[in-house]
Design the sequence.
């Protein structure tokens, strides 16, 4: 296990160095994303200045949700940046070279790239969590649980979407769209969804388990809420691994990928 | 304002420079399609120094990409402009087509000054860039052609007649309704050339028109350009790295180097001296093949490979190969044209020797 | 003499118009050829509207006392958002095309032609936008029918269409300004981001600028960003002849000013390219 983490850290560090290569471009992308997030937050400040709360959620709750989301997307992009174009990697047949190597396939795909813009998300996320989310130091352990679980669900969803590429070549941009839709659902107060939309947010596009359930856990800690968050993370991770390997089996039989 | 500055600079330069060498092939001005005199283009750029302070005090460096070029091209002539990379041929072509202002000098293309009358000139010239598409990739070629008809204000009947002629001579019928990005390079190039001719230009500029194509596609394009120009009295100016483009399409060659015209001669004359050659490489399993015949020179060769320069005026390639095969043990033979760099080098060397 | 002159002028104008029309058709054709992208855009539009209308429906349903919820129209802001996103998603990436052509040297073949590259590019972009406006508009109407939400007043539709189309023109001009900066800057991304964020804030992408505090509302309404988004969308919640004319006037003003700015930038950039042979 330790050897695996060390190997992954080596690969990811190489990807990060690559994204640093063009300094000016890197700074520009980070700053751009940071400003993007700042404007988004400003819009919410204006919103809550006018409307106080929505479905029982106040600004601090939304800040907690956005902070979690930005930190999760930031960590994913910097450390597991390959998730973004995983479907394209599969469709381009880049798996063939990796299949000849002994170490884990999914981890190799995730470590291929590190996205510069994600540093802007990560910095923004930490600032929002620290300044606006109304968290106490005692919340730190649960915050780490929330981030780990949310990241696992988000990454698992992205891997599942990318695995569609094993079955359909049209999944190239569709996989990315589905990930973006999950992100979209995750950027609004959880209290606004009802009926069918809520079902979608807690299943196919699992925004519910990426940020909403973790926010509830942090606001009302208890055995039940912690259990929901952790079991969801395990469930989605297992689903993603199963889905990917099912696709891989198909790929190895030579049945897929036009 | 800019033009004023340029012409003032020209007068100044003209005053302090010795009179320029007259063009070697003077035509009567009436028939000249292109006349350029003492054309110069100087690029300056800031060269940043090393270290922290260096970035703040850049040195200005300038390069003369075109350094006093003069020549004339008559109506119906097909001229190749060749030279090593960075010799100034692309810059010259850009100035002549109106998309670059010279630092000084004069030019007249079809009676217009290109950089002052860019749009008026555009109606009269056609331009093909071998490495840059001017068609709209995701749409069928026909849509691109139609768009060009409107851009060049072409009458529908005239346009249809020209397109029909091109479709027939260039075998485009099956291509017209295909999206351009699905075509092979050769097919796309045929469409690019068609696109540049649909408004019936009297002058055609071609920049590396056969680059990257296979032998058959190259042959089709050369034949088409030559025949079309001959039949329509069209003037052609082309640059290429392929000696065959020059031999088969052009009747005159201008060699530029370091921004200056080095040689300006009919292709026929050059062919006798520099172009009528082949490079034959013979691979053998056993000892090296030795071909000792008049017109055959052996180049630096490796253990199992012999590289031979064949002068086709003195001996046919076929005879060289027969002689090689007769020795037995031949594994592979390749026949190539000498690279343009070698040809230019030879021409350049002999031109210097004459001076 | 004068009549011949006049005649040649009118022939020239006719030629220019037909070239622009042809470029417009080209933009239409290109967008239709990329229909999977168009379908993806429509799906994205639907999901976006589901999320955003869920937000505004919730706010409208709660109507917390002492908040701005009292100022909201009876049906909430779902219809308003429907129009702002309709315009936003219809905008073609004209800045990327400009940046690509200018930076890659792809401008050269265009400069060798007798018609203005800038005018042709605008026309082509508007052709692309027209297809997107149509596809997204049909999607919006279908969504309206499926959800059973109360549609805008009947007289609002012509206002929305006219102001929406002109709003797209303003948007194309704004993004073109960012794209033309490619003559001087290696990447236009920063300019594009600034313009996009101002569209969000001052254009009122997520809520009408009338909900903003006093000064900000005034600044926003007078800005080109409101001409791009706010004025067309405001018609969806409160259609009025007066509001329509006010919006039209602001749009007219900004289209003229932005066009002049684009032409100035283009001329300066072109002079640079012709002088230096590139950027």
Sequence:
């Amino acid at each position: 296990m330790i050897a695996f983490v060390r190997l992954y850290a080596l690969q990811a560090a190489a990807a990060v160095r690559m994204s640093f290569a063009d300094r000016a471009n890197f700074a520009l992308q980070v700053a751009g994303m940071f400003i993007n997030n700042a404007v988004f937050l400003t819009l919410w400040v204006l919103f809550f200045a006018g409307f106080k709360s929505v479905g029982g959620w106040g600004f601090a709750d939304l800040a907690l949700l956005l902070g979690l989301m930005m930190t999760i997307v930031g960590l994913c992009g910097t450390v597991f940046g390959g998730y973004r174009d995983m479907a394209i990697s599969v469709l381009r047949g880049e798996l063939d070279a990796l299949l000849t190597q002994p170490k884990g396939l999914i981890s190799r795909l995730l470590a291929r790239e590190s996205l510069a813009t994600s540093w802007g998300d990560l910095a923004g996320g930490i600032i929002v969590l620290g300044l606006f989310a109304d968290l106490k130091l005692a919340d730190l352990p649960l915050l780490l649980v929330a981030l780990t679980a949310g990241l696992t669900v988000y990454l698992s969803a992205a891997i599942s979407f990318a695995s569609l590429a094993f079955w359909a070549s049209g999944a190239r941009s569709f996989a990315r769209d589905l990930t973006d839709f999950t992100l979209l659902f995750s950027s609004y107060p959880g209290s606004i969804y009802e009926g069918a939309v809520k079902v979608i947010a807690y299943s196919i596009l699992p925004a519910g388990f990426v940020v909403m359930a973790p926010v509830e856990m942090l606001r009302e800690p208890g055995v039940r809420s912690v259990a929901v968050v952790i079991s969801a993370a395990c469930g989605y991770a297992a689903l993603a691994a199963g889905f990917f390997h099912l696709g891989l089996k198909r790929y190895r039989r030579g049945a897929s990928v036009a | 304002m800019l033009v004023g500055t340029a012409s003032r600079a020209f007068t100044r330069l003209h005053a302090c420079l010795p009179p320029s060498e007259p063009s070697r092939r003077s035509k009567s001005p009436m028939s000249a399609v292109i006349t350029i005199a003492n054309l110069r283009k100087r690029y300056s750029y800031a060269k940043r120094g090393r270290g922290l302070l260096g970035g703040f005090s850049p040195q200005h460096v300038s390069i003369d990409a075109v350094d006093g070029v003069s020549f004339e091209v008559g109506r119906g002539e097909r001229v190749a402009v060749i030279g090593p990379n960075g010799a100034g041929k692309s810059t010259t072509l850009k100035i002549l087509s109106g998309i670059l202002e010279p630092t000084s000098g004069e030019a007249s293309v079809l009676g217009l000054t290109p950089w002052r009358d860019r749009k008026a000139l555009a109606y009269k010239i056609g331009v093909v860039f071998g490495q840059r598409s001017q068609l709209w990739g995701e749409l069928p070629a026909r849509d691109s052609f139609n768009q060009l008809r409107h851009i060049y204000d072409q009458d529908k009947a005239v346009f249809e007649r020209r397109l029909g002629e091109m479709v027939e001579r260039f075998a485009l019928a099956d291509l017209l309704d295909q999206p351009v990005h699905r075509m092979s390079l050769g097919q796309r190039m045929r469409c690019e050339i068609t696109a540049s001719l649909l408004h019936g230009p009297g002058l055609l500029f071609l920049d590396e028109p056969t680059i990257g194509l296979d032998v058959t596609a190259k042959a089709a394009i050369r034949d088409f350009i030559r025949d079309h120009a001959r039949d329509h009295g069209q003037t052609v100016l082309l640059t290429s790295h392929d000696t065959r483009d020059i031999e088969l399409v052009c009747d005159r060659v201008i060699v530029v180097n370091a921004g200056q015209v080095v040689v300006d001669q009919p292709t026929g004359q050059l062919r006798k001296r520099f172009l009528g050659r082949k490079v034959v490489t013979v691979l053998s399993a056993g000892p090296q093949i030795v071909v000792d015949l008049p017109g055959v020179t052996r180049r630096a060769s490796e253990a199992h490979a012999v590289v031979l320069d064949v002068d086709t005026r003195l001996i046919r390639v076929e005879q060289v190969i027969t002689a090689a095969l007769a020795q037995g043990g031949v594994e592979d033979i390749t026949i190539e044209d000498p690279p343009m760099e070698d040809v230019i080098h030879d021409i350049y060397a002999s031109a210097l020797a004459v001076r | 003499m004068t009549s011949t002159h006049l005649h040649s002028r009118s022939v020239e104008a006719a030629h220019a118009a037909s070239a622009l029309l042809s470029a417009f058709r080209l933009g239409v054709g290109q967008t239709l050829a990329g229909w999977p992208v168009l379908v993806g855009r429509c799906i994205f539009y639907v999901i976006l509207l589901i999320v955003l209308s869920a937000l505004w429906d919730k706010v409208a349903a709660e109507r917390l006392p002492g908040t701005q919820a009292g100022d909201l129209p009876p049906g909430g802001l779902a219809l308003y958002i429907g129009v702002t996103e309709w315009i936003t998603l219809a905008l073609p990436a004209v800045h990327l095309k400009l940046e690509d052509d200018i930076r890659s040297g792809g401008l050269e073949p265009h400069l060798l032609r007798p018609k203005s590259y800038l005018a042709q590019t605008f026309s082509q972009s508007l052709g692309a936008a027209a297809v997107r406006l149509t596809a997204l508009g049909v999607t919006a109407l279908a969504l309206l029918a499926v959800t059973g939400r109360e549609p805008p007043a009947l007289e609002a539709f012509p206002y929305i269409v006219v102001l929406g189309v002109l709003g797209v023109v303003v948007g194309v001009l704004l993004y073109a300004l960012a794209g033309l900066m490619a003559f001087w800057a290696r990447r236009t991304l920063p300019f594009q981001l600034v313009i996009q964020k101002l569209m969000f804030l001052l254009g009122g992408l997520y809520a009408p600028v009338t909900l903003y505090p006093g000064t900000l509302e005034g600044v926003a309404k007078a800005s080109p960003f409101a001409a791009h988004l706010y004025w067309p969308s405001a018609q969806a919640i409160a259609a009025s002849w007066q509001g329509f004319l006010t919006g039209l006037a602001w749009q007219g003003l900004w289209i003229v000013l932005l066009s002049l700015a684009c032409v100035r930038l283009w001329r300066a950039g072109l002079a640079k390219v012709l002088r230096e042979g590139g950027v």
Notes: The longest helix of chain C spans residues 241-276. Chain C has a mean pLDDT of 91.
